[in-house]
């Protein structure tokens, strides 16, 4: 069995592995690397074994798949997307970009157990079919903040490259439980087996119900899953409201009084 695609302006990604990943989302990432390494990917009828092979517009990419291996290399079926209304504020919009303020408690993308409408579905509803939204970064479900949505593949590619090359900066405001003594600092540690790095600056302190809370501004250098939560919890200053790494009783009291 073969899958064949011609590279054009709409589906173009420069690296071979990225092109396959973006145009064949049903193939597992590990399987993509394996297929390339073992010579099951051809560009213009020539076998290519380098993940970072650079493609050009007009190239023909062919993937050779064994019938008995399809189940092994295929991703499980993803939850279907459907346009559904979601409330969010629009910060900026032009023909290529939509910048929104993501509310807390709303997932960015559907998961296997997600029943509520998500951000991507909300943007689909907002677009009314006039553009195809592409998410170029994510925020945790419980996190509110600015999200940039590309309206076309070209803009998505450019934004993704800017993020990868760290030409963009990510800032977060976070309320920590505890009396943070240092006015600023840097945290470098391992989160789920990967190096995680951030810098923080103390902005203000609050006395709530006899406990001290510290408001900090964080500049994130790496985007590990739940990085901020894990790193500050390890330091002894869990994020207020985070039941997984903090004090559930204290969080319950906060929610009762502040929502």
UniProtKB/TrEMBL annotation:
This is Ribosomal large subunit pseudouridine synthase C. Its EC number is 5.4.99.24. One of its GO terms (molecular function) is 23S rRNA pseudouridine(955/2504/2580) synthase activity. Pfam families: PseudoU_synth_2 (PF00849), S4 (PF01479). SMART domains: S4. Keywords: Isomerase, RNA-binding, rRNA processing. It comes from Petrotoga halophila DSM 16923. Belongs to the pseudouridine synthase RluA family. GO terms for biological process: enzyme-directed rRNA pseudouridine synthesis. Responsible for synthesis of pseudouridine from uracil at positions 955, 2504 and 2580 in 23S ribosomal RNA. It catalyses: uridine(955/2504/2580) in 23S rRNA = pseudouridine(955/2504/2580) in 23S rRNA. Residues 14-78 form the RNA-binding S4 domain. Transmembrane segments: none annotated. The keyword rRNA processing applies. It is an enzyme of class 5 (isomerase). InterPro entries: PsdUridine_synth_cat_dom_sf, PsdUridine_synth_RluA-like_CS, PsdUridine_synth_RsuA/RluA, RluA_PseudoU_synthase, S4_RNA-bd, S4_RNA-bd_sf. It comes from the Bacteria.
